[in-house]
Structure formats: structure tokens, C-alpha cells
């Protein structure tokens, strides 16, 4: 009996590994939202998707040149209807991807798209198919799919109403946006990380010349105000809470203004990005000492007069006075947090402002409770101005990112990658010289003796400058990939120039290894100067001619993790040399939409659908041959098309990837050696 149980378990595991590879973590439903439609009416087609946990669906409203595969619907023309406007995604969330270096929109758990159509005849017939991509948060898989939909009626009563369900979906979608902001794995950093940065920014704001002198004013205001120790503590706590409330309300206003539709405009249009750049630039000049930014004195005096009335209202207005007076120093920092959190989010700016104001409020609250601590503080002086100047240099550097976004979207060509790097190198080199006391700006005191702290900061700064210098010659600078413009805008890419102009002594170059001109080579390419094929039959014929195994790369234009594998693993010299020398390279793009001649079409044995495009045929080949539909997916084949070793998927370990290649090469050698 025990052996029978073991046998059944083994069979179950075998079946699981065999049949669970073809994954479809999404299901669709379609309906017409209106109960009854007549000729001349506009009907709303609704396409709703349920998405499995830990998977997300790319939406349809981001830059199609960014990289990920958009969700698209292809409607078959018919005289009975006419499309009205374009496809509308309902409340997608937004993320930023460092690989693609851009913003994209996506759905989790639930998705909905709507398309309006004008009914011209009854009965009508609407047939459409969609193409889309879903990706996994867990293992990096990205899978393209397509589905078919049809709408038609014989009588008006056959149309089912789903209006209440639609309203429910919209409400759930709005709620989900808030939830996603707390778990968005595609953000540059998590919410916790963002709050830590905001908290540190609040601590940094305490050291600015506008804020630091307010500490003695706070102590003076609270000294002797309360009749008891408990009353003093109560007033101090209310004072700190008031500071937090004032800042958080500002974050709430920003969050309300930045709705989902406004987010896409805010992140890509040149007007807000140039505006943010100018804001950073102006505040940077202020921090560097060119001028001071102050609120109108009459307004500040009126608020301050309210504080003199005493009571809890006076405590609140004292906090308001602190915020206003310190505006010229905290304004740029607060603005940086709000700009960083911009993009239609609600939770992120609220938590960011809360973390900032918490760090800002705690010291003032403590000094209000313990006025005697004032005697232990260092006196105000030139060191406070140095803090402001350092912040000015950082504002100047970080502001370039917004100008860079506008430059990339509108192809102005004024801030390419190399120009961007030159500016950063100069800015941080000048910051290093300033820390060493070699530069003096308005408000600075002479530095008679360099402190250890300034020395260590200058070492860090100059180390950062040296790290950036190789980027001028084409080094990838992966640590800065989210800030720098794409490599395609770099004028002097030394590695590419070397690959393109290197001769071929000794080992054959990749181009010499090609047996014939690759099909589709005019539009499909390998990275890192690798040469290969994009058609299975071509690669198989060349493998037989050269007596080499085939490296099959199931990839896609919109596959983020494919690009990451190419950038981090394929670029390693140990991997790259093997790919170029030991294998016939074959890349099969599963999302390539180029339609083949009708003579090359066929009906799939897997789903019974006609496969017309390069991508759909490649995806069908992966499913029917290898029982897998995820990308990236790497396969090593013999010259007869048989597997050499077990295929692998997303693998970030270079050593494991090298072992995979070497094992396949050894198996090929053993199999083909007489």
C-alpha cells in the first residue's frame, strides 16, 4: 500500500510538471452595458478580466515605443456598426520600470476596457480579437495572449444589462488603485523606502538656516505658558500634531488634484516636466545664495499675531507660523517629495508628508517639553549655510531628470545621455570642491580647518564622480539606470564601436558564423553584437551545416525580464563568448505582429486557431513543442531538433547560466562524437 501511495504521488508530480507549464493566469468576460439599443444609438462594449494573484496585465494607454506589449483590440469591419473614439482602460495604475526607463500603466486582480460603437443596423455583428501581455511579480515570467469576442443580436431583448455590475467594477477599481500603491513592486522603491527618504528629508530640513533658528523661538513661546507640567506636555504635543496636520493637508490637496487621467499627462507632457525642472532650478539658485524666497511679510505677521492670543488656537497658529517662516528652506524639500509622489496616487503623498512632518515635528515637540535642552545645541553659524548649499547642488542635479523626460518624449535632442552625464559630473565635482573649502558662496564663513565629516562627504562625492566618468564612453552605469537617458541617445558608445569595427582573427566573429542572411533580420535583432536567426528552419539548417547546438531564446519586444537577462547576464564575458562561439543563435519573438504571407498560415493543433503572424506562430511553437508559454525561456537543441538539457526560464545567476550552456555543449559533444 505504501508503494502504491508513493507511486501515485510520483505520477501526480509528473502530471503537475507536465501540464502546469502552459499558464493562462487571466480570464475574460464581455458584455454590452446598455439594456436596449436602437439604430443610431451608441453602445458601450465592456471587456472585463480576472487576473490571478501575483500577475499583472499591461494596459493600453502608455507610450507604445516604451517596450511592454500594449493591450489592443482589433475590430473586424462590418457595415452594422462603427467605432466611436478609442479604447478606454478603466482606472489603471501607473508604475515606472528601470529596464524600459519609462512609465507604464497596468492592472492587478481586475481589469476593464470599454469601447463605444455606433449601431448602424439591427441585427448587428461585432467581432474583435485582443492581444495583450501578462507578467508575474514572483518569477519574472511575461506571457503574451490573444482572445476572440463577438457581439450580435436577433432581437433587442437579447442584450443583457450589466450596468449594476459595471458600477460595482468601477468602485472596486478605484479601491484597488489605493491598494496597489502599497504593494507596487514596479516602483523605484517601496512605500516604506519612500517614507524613510521623506523622514530623512525632514531631519535634513531641521538643519537649514530658516528652521534651526526657530528652535529657540519655540522654547521661548512655550516657557512659562503652561501652569503645570502636564499642561506643558499637552500643549507641546498639540504643537507637534499641528505641524504634522498642516503638512499632511498639503499632501492631501496634491493627491486630490492628481487624478489617474492627470497622471499620464503629468508624467509625460513637456509642460509639467519643464515646470518641475524650473522649480528645482530656481530653488537651487536660492539655496546657492543668489536670492532668498520668502512669503509676503504681511501674511506671515497676521498669522503670527494669531499665535500671540494664546490657548490651543495660539499653539496651532504658532505651528502655522513655523511652517510659513521656514518655507524658504523647506519648500524645495517638500516640493521634491510631492513631485516624487506625483502621479495620481493618494496614499503615497499622504505617507510621504506624514513621514517628513513627523521628523520635522519631533524635535520641536521635545524642545517644547524640555526647554533646558536648548543650552546643549550648537550655535547658528556658517555650517547651516553649508547645509543649504549642499542641498542646492543636489536640487540642481535632480531637476535635470524632469527636463530629460520632456526631451525624450518630444525628441528635442538637447539632453542626451552623454550631455546629462557631463552635467552631473560637473555638478558633483563642484560639490566635492565646495566640501573641501575650495569654493565659497554667499553666506559662507571661512573654513580654517576641514572637519572629518566634510572630508568623508567629499570622498563619497568624488567617488561618485569617478564612477560616472566611464559612462561617457558607453559604460552602462546600472546603478543609475533609472535616472539616466537611454543608451540609444549616447553619441560615443565605445563598446558598440569596438564590436562593429573589430576584425576577426582567431575565432570566427558572429557574422562569419551565419550560413545565410537571416529572415526578418531587417526588423529583429540580437543584443551585444550577437548574430543569429529568427526562423527555426533556418537555424536548424545552419546547425546541421556547422555541427553546432542551437540556443533558442523565446523572447518578446515587451518582455521586461528578457531585457534584464540580456543586460545583466548575457553581457557577462563568460556568457557572451559562449553564445557567440558555441551555438547557432535563434531568437523567436512571441509578440512580433508582422503578418506572414497567407501561404504560411496554419491552424494550431493546440487551440484550433489560424496562426497568421510571426509572433503567434512562435508562441504556438513554444506551447506545442515545449509545453510552455512564458518568456524568457531558453532551450538548447541538437541538430535534429531534440532537447539536450532541461530548458530554463528567468535565471539571474551568471554561474548557473554558464553551467546550463556548458552542460548542453557537453551533451551535444557526447551525442555527436563517434
From TrEMBL:
Keywords: Cytochrome c-type biogenesis, Membrane, Transmembrane, Transmembrane helix. It is a multi-pass membrane protein. It is found in: Membrane. Residues 195-403 form the Cytochrome C biogenesis protein transmembrane domain. The chain crosses the membrane at residues 191-215, 236-258, 270-291, 312-338, 350-370, 382-399, 419-436, 457-477. GO terms for cellular component: membrane. Its main location: membrane. Residues 39-149 form the Thiol:disulfide interchange protein DsbD N-terminal domain. GO terms for biological process: cell redox homeostasis; cytochrome complex assembly. This is Thiol:disulfide interchange protein DsbD.
Amino acid at each position: 500500500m505504501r508503494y502504491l501511495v508513493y507511486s501515485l504521488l510520483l505520477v501526480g508530480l509528473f502530471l503537475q510538471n507536465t501540464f502546469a507549464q502552459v499558464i493562462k493566469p487571466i480570464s475574460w468576460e464581455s458584455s454590452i452595458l446598455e439594456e436596449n439599443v436602437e439604430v443610431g444609438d451608441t453602445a458601450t462594449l465592456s471587456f472585463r478580466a480576472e487576473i490571478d494573484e501575483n500577475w499583472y496585465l499591461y494596459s493600453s494607454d502608455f507610450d507604445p515605443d516604451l517596450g511592454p506589449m500594449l493591450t489592443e483590440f482589433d475590430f473586424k469591419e462590418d457595415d452594422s456598426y462603427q467605432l466611436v473614439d478609442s479604447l478606454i482602460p478603466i482606472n489603471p495604475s501607473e508604475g515606472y520600470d528601470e529596464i524600459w526607463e519609462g512609465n507604464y500603466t497596468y492592472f492587478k486582480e481586475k481589469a476593464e476596457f470599454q469601447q463605444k460603437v455606433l449601431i448602424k443596423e439591427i441585427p448587428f455583428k461585432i467581432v474583435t480579437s485582443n492581444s495583450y501581455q501578462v507578467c508575474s511579480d514572483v518569477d519574472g515570467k511575461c506571457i503574451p495572449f490573444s482572445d476572440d469576442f463577438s457581439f450580435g443580436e436577433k432581437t433587442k431583448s437579447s442584450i443583457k444589462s450589466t450596468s449594476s455590475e459595471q458600477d460595482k467594477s468601477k468602485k472596486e477599481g478605484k479601491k484597488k488603485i489605493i491598494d496597489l500603491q502599497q504593494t507596487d513592486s514596479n516602483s523605484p522603491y517601496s512605500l516604506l523606502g519612500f517614507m524613510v527618504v521623506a523622514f530623512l528629508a525632514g531631519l535634513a530640513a531641521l538643519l537649514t538656516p530658516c528652521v534651526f533658528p526657530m528652535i529657540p523661538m519655540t522654547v521661548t513661546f512655550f516657557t512659562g505658558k503652561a501652569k503645570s507640567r502636564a499642561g506643558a506636555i499637552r500643549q507641546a504635543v498639540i504643537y507637534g500634531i499641528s505641524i504634522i496636520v498642516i503638512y499632511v493637508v498639503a499632501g492631501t490637496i496634491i493627491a486630490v488634484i492628481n487624478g489617474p487621467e492627470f497622471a499620464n499627462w503629468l508624467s509625460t507632457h513637456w509642460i509639467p516636466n519643464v515646470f518641475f525642472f524650473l522649480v528645482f532650478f530656481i530653488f537651487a539658485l536660492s539655496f546657492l545664495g543668489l536670492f532668498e524666497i520668502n512669503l509676503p511679510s504681511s501674511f506671515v505677521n497676521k498669522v503670527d499675531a494669531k499665535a500671540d492670543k494664546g490657548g490651543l488656537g495660539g499653539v496651532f497658529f504658532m505651528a502655522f507660523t513655523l511652517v510659513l517662516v521656514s518655507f524658504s528652506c523647506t519648500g524645495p524639500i517638500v516640493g521634491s517629495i510631492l513631485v516624487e509622489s506625483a502621479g495620481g496616487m493618494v496614499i503615497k503623498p499622504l505617507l510621504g508628508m506624514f513621514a517628513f512632518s513627523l521628523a520635522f515635528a519631533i524635535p520641536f515637540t521635545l524642545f517644547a517639553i524640555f526647554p533646558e535642552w536648548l543650552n546643549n545645541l550648537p550655535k547658528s553659524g556658517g555650517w547651516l549655510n553649508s547645509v543649504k548649499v549642499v542641498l542646492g547642488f543636489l536640487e540642481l542635479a535632480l531637476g535635470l531628470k524632469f527636463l530629460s523626460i520632456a526631451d525624450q518624449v518630444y525628441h528635442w535632442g538637447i539632453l542626451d545621455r552623454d550631455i546629462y552625464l557631463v552635467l552631473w559630473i560637473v555638478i558633483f565635482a563642484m560639490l566635492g570642491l565646495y566640501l573641501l573649502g575650495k569654493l565659497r558662496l554667499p553666506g559662507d564663513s571661512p573654513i580654517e580647518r576641514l572637519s572629518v565629516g566634510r572630508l568623508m562627504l567629499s570622498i563619497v562625492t568624488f567617488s561618485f564622480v569617478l564612477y560616472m566618468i566611464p559612462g561617457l564612453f558607453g559604460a552602462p552605469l546600472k546603478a543609475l539606470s533609472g535616472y539616466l537617458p537611454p543608451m540609444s541617445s549616447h553619441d560615443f558608445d565605445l563598446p558598440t564601436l569596438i564590436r562593429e569595427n573589430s576584425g576577426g582573427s582567431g575565432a570566427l566573429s558572429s557574422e562569419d558564423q551565419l550560413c545565410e542572411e537571416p529572415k526578418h533580420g531587417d526588423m529583429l535583432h540580437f543584443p551585444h553584437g550577437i548574430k543569429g536567426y529568427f526562423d527555426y528552419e533556418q537555424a536548424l539548417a545552419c546547425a546541421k551545416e556547422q555541427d553546432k547546438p542551437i540556443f533558442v531564446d523565446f523572447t518578446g519586444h515587451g518582455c521586461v525580464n528578457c531585457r534584464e537577462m540580456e543586460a545583466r547576464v548575457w553581457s557577462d564575458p563568460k556568457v557572451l563568448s559562449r553564445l557567440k562561439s558555441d551555438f547557432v543563435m535563434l531568437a523567436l519573438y512571441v509578440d512580433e505582429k508582422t503578418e506572414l504571407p497567407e501561404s504560411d498560415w496554419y491552424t494550431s493543433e493546440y487551440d484550433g486557431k489560424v496562426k497568421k503572424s510571426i509572433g503567434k506562430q512562435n508562441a504556438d511553437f513554444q506551447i506545442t513543442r515545449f509545453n510552455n508559454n512564458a518568456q524568457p525561456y531558453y532551450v538548447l537543441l541538437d541538430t535534429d531538433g531534440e532537447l539536450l538539457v532541461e530548458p530554463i526560464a528567468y535565471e539571474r545567476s551568471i554561474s548557473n547560466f554558464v553551467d546550463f550552456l556548458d552542460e548542453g555543449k557537453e551533451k551535444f559533444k557526447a551525442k555527436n562524437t563517434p
